[in-house]
Design a protein that fits this description.
The chain is mainly beta and 184 residues long. Helix content is 8%, strand content 55%.
Length: 184
């Protein structure tokens, strides 16, 4: 009962504007990554919520923070294998520094540390994660462009592992690229 009341109070605070976080995302994105060492292709889609208000033109420089929620499909290309895919559900707070110059296109660097929940603990024959709960670290660089700076392209490196909770802890590290669009 206390949980329901607490949830209702939190939703009421959000509805009344007591929080700067909107229930609707400010950005949607698609991503692709590949690691040749593990023979895994990563396809993902996600949404971002700004945790610090941004101007309508999305041209603020300096430090920003957002929450990324993503669903990714990891496709193992190792043959033969019965473990050829994993679903990855993640939430990552991301800190971003946007440079003031040049004004267009806007250049930024970012990094985040989040949690991942995997649908399986193995991909291909030799990549073992041991736990479904994983942690992910990401660093990237990118640029935003367009009349409202509504488009973004970034390249990044992501590492996902269980931080030694249980062995073996192979983890997965891969480079990737993301294209995103800021919702009006």
């Amino acid at each position: 009962m206390r949980t329901i009341i607490g949830g209702a109070i939190a939703l009421a605070m959000l509805a009344n504007g007591a929080s700067a976080v909107s229930l609707l995302p400010q950005q949607v994105y698609g991503t692709f990554g590949y690691t040749s060492g593990a023979f895994v292709a990563i396809y993902g889609a996600g949404a971002s919520w700004d945790l610090k208000p941004r101007p309508p033109a999305r041209d603020e420089s300096g430090l920003g923070i957002r929450l990324d929620g993503q669903v990714a499909y990891w496709w193992g290309k190792g043959k033969p294998t019965e473990n050829n895919h994993v679903w990855d559900f993640s939430a990552t707070p991301v800190f971003r520094w946007t440079f003031a110059k040049p004004e267009a296109p806007r250049v930024f660097v970012e990094g985040g540390l989040g949690v991942h929940l995997l649908s399986a603990t193995r991909i291909n024959n030799d990549r073992i994660f041991s736990t479904a709960l994983q942690f992910g670290e990401m660093v990237g660089i990118g640029t935003s462009f367009g009349p409202r700076n509504e488009y973004e392209v970034r390249v990044y490196v992501q590492h996902v592992s269980n931080a030694g909770i249980k062995m073996p802890n192979w983890g997965l590290t891969y480079p990737g690229i993301t294209f995103s669009y800021a919702l009006p």
